[in-house]
Amino acid sequence: MSASDWDGILRNAETVLWQGKSDDGVFLEASRRLTFFTTAGMFVIGLFMAIAVLVMSSGQKNGPDWVFALFFFVFLLFSGGLALGQLYWPAYKRRHTFYTLTSQRAILGVDLPFGSRRLQTYDINADQAYEYRPTAPGAPGSIVFEYRYSGIRVNKIPQTFAVGMMYVHDVETAWNKLREVQRNLTQKRPERGANA
Length: 196
What we know:
The chain is α+β, with helices and mostly antiparallel strands and 196 residues long.
């Protein structure tokens, strides 16, 4: 982004230290929410596919059997969309997500093609313990700023999802810059009792 693109976004004396983008690959996240919906969707797909095959192979070609099969085919498409959506929607959203680390904040920008634009900011705090997920084979690393409730409970346990700089190839550089900002904030902090 050029300097004029940051007008009205950056604060006084705030400078951009790092910018990056997510990998837009499909990653099977370890959240129970994703596993639950994918498994449930695949189960429904298999169930309806089996029923549709049984109905179609019954050898009767009258109207009610085809209506019955069509009814299950619609549910097959719906459950398939639900299951695949749980896998591909996060990847699609990451494709349009951009990350910026400044001397004061972390900025997450989402710019979806159908007009949904959003900036999310996290003030960097010297005492905040951010979660660092280093790059592993097959998955770029992440920095997690918070966990949010997804609105779903499984076995009365609220399901959460991670929010942050997710699946970034250059995550080590971003993490080092974030830790540097935290160290600078700690050094600028007045000593306790200095004004007493």
